[in-house]
């Protein structure tokens, strides 16, 4: 049987966190995300279409007057404590570097922050490809801004949280996750154009059409994951250089023949994926869910064959879902493990989840997690 991973009750989680601090300034939540389509396009100035999950990371904060930043987590035994002024890239390691990184990035952006005690509770499964790290960073960012009495606009917060993740936590991601966490809206997907960092909400209510989005966390993570992301990024930059364009967003299908075989496949994924995002938005506008499903499946094939970031577990989720009536299915996120999504008829959702779990068991793999995924609210104060 698939294991259902529930988001938990926001009010209860917030109350428990607040109880760990005397006189907290507040409790803030930032969601994980599922990218519906548009993978590895963000750092190519392309298009992405994520939704925010109901699963979030929560951060409670209280001011202190000694300039110290202290960070504890409901999930980790160790806590970080250090002078805010001494947090710099390379000075903090492990999970706390994501939180300390936010303080550094906000200060770098010119904001003045007080010393703070933060306690976080992460309800986005770690390593699931659903952006638990962006949820941690973005909830911490809102908490720190509240403690500092500052209110930067969301695009500035996206920029600061991206710097925190790439420069302090050392993960050079492309902005999809932070943008989804900070700007996501309930009932909507977020169309992000990374050419100019503009966003537009797109209604996403598959249940109105009798459909459900199944999110399956394979719980597989492959050791080459970190290197794989960086090398794909380098290959995309190399392809753009060879084509003489600032980014692969400016490349067209007819340019691809000028590249060698490997770079051609990498670039073909990006060029066709950007088009699939635009096509998905058009299909959603037309209420054509069959087409949305086809685009999901085509996206998966492109990631499996051209970009080569899938793995056996992700392929098994996709193939099993499709064999049992899914309209479409694809891996989501960075790849090499993590989660896959399937667009299924509501009445068949449990059956598809059970079939996937049975297929995993037949391979001798551990049970996958299944997450409910209504498009949910972006980062916000919850208490
Ligand atoms: C990871 C990164 C994102 C994005 C996706 C792939 O989630 O953090 O910036 O590149 O992979 O779409």
Q: What does this 3D model show about the protein?
A:
This protein is of the alpha+beta class and 383 residues long. 39% of the residues lie in helices and 24% in strands. The chain contains 10 helices and 13 strands. Strands 2, 3, 4, 5, 6, 7, 8 and 13 form an 8-stranded mixed β-sheet that branches. A 5-stranded mixed β-sheet has the order 1-12-9-11-10. Strand 10 and strand 11 (337-345) form a beta hairpin. The longest helix has 25 residues, at 261-285. 53% of the residues are buried. The structure holds alpha-D-galactopyranose.
Largest sheet: 8 strands, mixed
Bound molecules: alpha-D-galactopyranose
Instruction: Based on Cα principal axes, name the global outline.
Output: globular
- Rounded average pLDDT: 96
Derived from helix and strand composition plus strand pairing, the structural class reads alpha+beta
SSE order, one letter for each helix or strand = EHEEEEHEHHHEEEHHHHEEHEE
> What is the helix tally?
10
Oligomeric form of this entry? Answer: single chain
Unreliable spans are none
β-strand amount: 15-25%
Report helical residue fraction.
Answer: 25-40%
Offer a concise description of the structure:
The protein is α+β, with helices and mostly antiparallel strands. The protein is built from 10 helices and 13 strands. Helices cover 39% and strands 24% of the residues.
